[in-house]
Design goal:
By secondary structure, the protein is α+β, with helices and mostly antiparallel strands. It has four helices and ten strands, in the order βαβαβαβββββββα. Monomer.
């Protein structure tokens, strides 16, 4: 099964729930691409030797990599980190994540500022463009293991919304207007 994404409801219920509209309003890979979100499906069982992953890293210039396990028994300050990840924010660099095990959600804003929930499962690699407002949460399984990829040295700084005056945000918004 490929990547699944949908427009979210506005419920304040547990962030780990799917939050689908009723009826569901799916979002296609093409619609995500229009927002600058790109996706690959890889074989996470061979991530250490996967030639397809190596080619993507080479083509995109992803020179830095580390692995994070997000689970209450594995991640120091687990609750605090989950709250931080779920705050709406942007980065000045692309965010690249490859799910090696478990499941999670990335939420991104569309051109009309509506939330789109992207369900990430083992083998899903996604890139979120610099300047896109987004957030991250686990699903109800409360576990994921992910590879974090960067061009050059990692920059861990997130800028919470509002950050509309940042150059990278203005460039991102201009790129959306250019694609209309």
């Amino acid at each position: 099964m490929g990547l699944e994404a949908w427009f979210m409801d506005s419920s304040d219920e547990d962030q780990r729930k799917p939050h689908r509209l009723n009826p569901n309003q799916p979002v296609s890979l093409d619609e995500l691409k229009e927002l600058g979100v790109f996706y690959w499906k890889l074989n996470a069982d061979i991530y250490e030797t996967d030639p397809e992953l190596e080619q993507i890293r080479k083509d995109q210039g992803y020179s830095y990599m580390d692995i994070i396990t997000i689970h209450k028994d594995k991640l120091p300050n687990y609750e605090e980190k989950l709250k931080m990840f779920f705050e709406e924010h942007l980065h000045v660099d692309d965010e690249i994540r490859y799910i090696l095990d478990g499941q999670a959600y990335f939420d991104v804003r569309d051109k009309e500022d509506r939330w789109i929930r992207i369900s990430m499962r083992k083998g899903d690699l996604i890139t979120l463009p610099a300047g896109i407002y987004h957030r991250f949460t686990l699903d109800e399984t409360n576990y994921t293991k992910a590879m974090r990829l960067f061009v050059g040295e990692p920059v861990w700084k997130a800028y919470n919304r509002p950050a509309d005056d940042f150059d990278i945000r203005q460039k991102y918004v201009a790129s959306l207007c250019a694609s209309i």
